[in-house]
Amino acid sequence: MTRFIIFRLLQGLLVIALVYAISFWLLMATPGDPFVGSKQPPASVLQALRKRYGLSNPAKAFVLYPWRVITRGDLGPTITYQDWTVNDVIGAALPVSMALGCFALVIALWAGVGLGVAGALYRGRWPDIALTIVTLLGVSVPTFVTGSLLLMGFGVYWAVLPSGGWGNISQLILPSITLSLVYLAYIARLTRVSVLDTLNADFVRTARAKGLPERAVIGNHVLRNAALPVLSFLGPSAAMVLTGSFVVEKLYAIPGLGEDFVNACLNKDIPLVLGCVLAYTVLVVAFNLLVDIACAFADPRITL
Asked: Mean pLDDT across the stretch 198-202?
């Protein structure tokens, strides 16, 4: 286990380095100057601004930026938000996105697994038909459509839930449901297919032949083995949902990282874009490692 974790950490460092290199040079190749607006500043001012943000010499900045991040944890100043650093922006916005993502992930996992198991156990009957409709809608309908419908229905017409904002539990319900629907649909479909395959396994027939209750067969034998595809899906999807969604955050006026990232891209705020990309990449690498370890614990036949 220790050898596997060390190997995956080294592999993760290589992935982070490649993502950083590709992102950096793509941003440098993007047309436009973040310091030139409606008026052209003097050349001396432009040179001073580029020097302040470490953009006067791209090759030097490419080497010094990761060294500064590793040694001091400093992601640099941000161009979009004056008097703020990238650390300040990510430190303020990422916890909001992660809180929203945690609630959405819990909803998607709990409801998706439940619907998937119900669809597999009642194959061809109304629970399975309902699952097919829900997953089809969840995958096909864009997030801004479902979010707008939920917002108009529960936030405007019935007015039983807040229509936006951030600060209390009730304001988390609508955006969490909106963000979770796509992941709920995928988890439900994966669970259904995996449970159907596992129900035909020899060890399940043996457990039933021994007289075990159906609840014990499903809970102790079927779900443990059927959970592997869901765990594999949770790696990248957990990183995506925990970093937030720009559409959901914009729709419900949530001060998360999604809006900051989009604003940074529009303004060519290279330090902020790199900081967001690195934060997301680290989360993906970490969650994939956790998923591999969880799969090994769920199925002892898996050798790390």
From this structure: 86
Rounded Cα–Cα distance for residues 38 and 85 (Å) = 24
Q: Which domain holds residue 242?
A: 87-298
Higher-pLDDT residue of 299, 108: 108
Assess contact for 221 and 203: CB atoms under 8 A: yes
CA dihedral 58, 60, 66, 68 (to 10 degrees): -120
77 in a domain, yes or no? no
CATH number at residue 291: 1.10.3720.10
Secondary structure (DSSP) of 33-88: -TT--SS---HHHHHHHHHHTT-SSHHHHHHHHHHHHHHH----B-SSSTT-BHHH
Domain count, the chain: 1
Q: What is the largest CA-CA distance in the chain?
A: 84
**Does some domain include residue 65?**
no
pLDDT digits (tens, 9 = 90+) for 54-83: 788 889 999 999 999 999 999 989 988 888
CB 245, CB 210: distance < 8 Å? no
Beta-carbon-side half-sphere exposure of residue 185 (alpha carbons within 13 Å): 17
Specify if 25 maps to a domain. Answer: no
What angle, 0 to 180 degrees and rounded to 10, lies between the N-to-C axes of helices 223-242 and 86-121?
A: 150
In-domain check, residue 218? yes
Rounded percentage of the chain residues whose pLDDT exceeds 90: 37
